[in-house]
Amino acid sequence: KLHSDLDKGVGSVKYTLSGDGAGTVFTIDETTGDIHAIRSLDREEKPFYTLRAQAVDVDTKKPLEPESEFIIKVQDINDNEPKFLDGPYVASVPEMSPVGAYVLQVKATDADDPTYGNSARVVYSILQGQPYFSIDPKTGVIRTALPNMDREVKEQYQVLIQAKDMGGQLGGLAGTTTVNITLTDVNDNPPRFPKSIFHLKVPETSHVGSAIGRIRAVDPDFGKNAEIEYNIVPGDGGNLFDITTDEYTQEGVIKLKKPLDFETKKAYTFKVEASNLHLDHRFHSVGPFKDTATVKINVLDMDEPPVFSKPMYTMEVYEDTPVGTIIGAVTAQDLDAGSSSVRYFMDWKNDVDSYFTIDATEGTIATNELLDRESTAQYNFSIIASKVSNPLLTSKVNVIINVLDVNEFPPEISVPYETSVCENAKPGQVIQTITAADKDLSPAGQRFSFKLSSEASNKPNFTVHDYRNNTAGIETRRNGYSRRQQELYFLPIVIEDSSYPVQSSTNTLTIRVCRCDSDGTIQSCNVEAIFLPVGLSTGALIAILLCIVILLVIVVLYVALRRQKKKDTLMTSKEDIRDNVIHYDDEGGGEEDTQAFDIGALRNPKVIEDNKIRRDIKPDTLRFTRHRPPAEDNTDIRDFINQRLQENDVDPSAPPYDSLATYAYEGNGSVAESLSSIDSLTTEADQDYDYLSDWGPRFKILADMFGEESYNPDKVT
């Protein structure tokens, strides 16, 4: 309820409400100031509301008091049950754990106000799962309640947990969740054989390395705790067998290490031990984690194929041995009780096997064709032996026949050499190392000797030095060689082998004379290089040609500059002494030409003050008004020129060179007046020169030259 001290109860005060929920959740009686809730409130949705109230005069609508703010808090009631937000739970605990072993902690959340009453006070209890597990009523920690729970007896447990508010009192709300607990395995059980003796029957024809039987020890544990290792206890017959563990079935697989023979021994007995790989020290007191069983193996008699006396036969024969020569024999026997005769035959696979034959009864091997070691040095084929009583029982053996060499080929130079010698070679210099090859045997099988032929021994050019390791060096015997005299040398070399009979051959080595530098590096071996100037290398010739080209370019540039300079000199006026000369290439128009130069500026200096355009450079296309200077404005030309000179000296835009302007102005007041012909009559005939006679004796000659001449017809011819 809101009330203002200014409210006298006569209805002159109006109460207004604003803020959170005003008009939607809360409303106010404008006359009495009573605040009412118009819908149900949920503390978990909004725990408090901030409102503002004000008392206003009904008539003037003006506030009687400043606006006041107040908070309405929602008081909690127990309307929410505890909830397990993370449930259902999954947990595990090792089997055989002691009482009180930690399993899992559960937590329930109550949305009610924990600060008001016991609405949010939760208590935990177990509804299902006793007596195996217990729970702390306050913390929700689940622990084991029974000792030595065995996984092999029961592995899975389902526990129902309840959380109740109001401290577990009557009337409180409750929530439940499920906890699935699994007992994990520990190695608490040793392996055990289900029986003490295992009987196996093995054919004597079983192959070495093959599995001949399986035995198994049982371990109720799981995973790595159930892994078993099998071992044969040393004793009678144990050295003929081996045992391994099948990692998928944990069975012991017995394998044969050596072949069995019924005629030699018919039965074997040995012991096998099974033990765990991963032991748990906590259970050593239970007893040894291993077990032992006896294995008896009976060898079964089988009809076996013949057995060769050797696992492989090696024979030798010389090449070119006559056909039909016996080179060896193979032998096979039937070891069974009723010994049977044996027959031999070739295992035909390819045409190579046709070089030999075998006697079916005796097993002797003879040549069937002439052999050539250079074609095939070794033959490898198989011989098959079968029992006469049972031809299906056969055995096979490999036969290797090595063909021995007969010395029939001479040695030769192994590869074609490209040998060269420098013109500046010194005596005793090795220019080539050569090797030899023999088709009879590899070079490692015999020794080769090298020497010059008899006709080459007398020539003082080259010699052969035998290194006695199947190689030889070609050495020079002269001090220098000349390509001009002889470009190629042909050196005959005699090569002999060490077999019997001795074979030899003469091989010709071609030696080319080349031009080299001082370090012995070959520069040229071409024939055309002989005709180059002696003492000049290719680089030197290129340098000389470049110098010649550069000199020609310099001469051409010099001549071009001379011609250009001469042309410029002819174009320049001899009387013009200025450094900067501008050529307009057109004829002046005299005093009437105002485009190139306004001479009126000299006669009227006042005009210059208004037009200060440079006169020493080519002017732009400007037209100046020609001024006729009045006679009374004449001024001293020298003062004017000095004034212009001073202005140009201090002008920063003036060129940095001297500029001389020549003004052809003769001044005013001359007695002779102007001598210009611009205003003269158009022809000489129209001019009157009689006044020259009046000027006195000084002008008599001019008066005679330009005076009027009398016409005399007699002088005409």
From TrEMBL:
Residues 4-84, 85-193, 194-308, 309-413, 413-531 form the Cadherin domain. Keywords: Calcium, Cell adhesion, Cell membrane, Cleavage on pair of basic residues, Glycoprotein, Membrane, Metal-binding, Phosphoprotein, Repeat, Signal, Transmembrane, Transmembrane helix. It is found in: Cell membrane. CDD domains: Cadherin_repeat. GO terms for biological process: adherens junction organization; calcium-dependent cell-cell adhesion via plasma membrane cell adhesion molecules; cell migration; cell morphogenesis; cell-cell adhesion mediated by cadherin; cell-cell junction assembly; homophilic cell adhesion via plasma membrane adhesion molecules. GO terms for cellular component: adherens junction; catenin complex. The keyword Transmembrane applies. It is a single-pass type I membrane protein. Cadherins are calcium-dependent cell adhesion proteins. They preferentially interact with themselves in a homophilic manner in connecting cells; cadherins may thus contribute to the sorting of heterogeneous cell types. Its main location: membrane. GO terms for molecular function: beta-catenin binding; cadherin binding; calcium ion binding. It comes from the Eukaryota. SMART domains: CA. The chain crosses the membrane at residues 530-561. It holds the Pfam family Cadherin. This is Cadherin-12. The keyword Metal-binding applies. InterPro entries: Cadherin, Cadherin-like_dom, Cadherin-like_sf, Cadherin_CS, Cadherin_Y-type_LIR, Catenin-bd_sf.
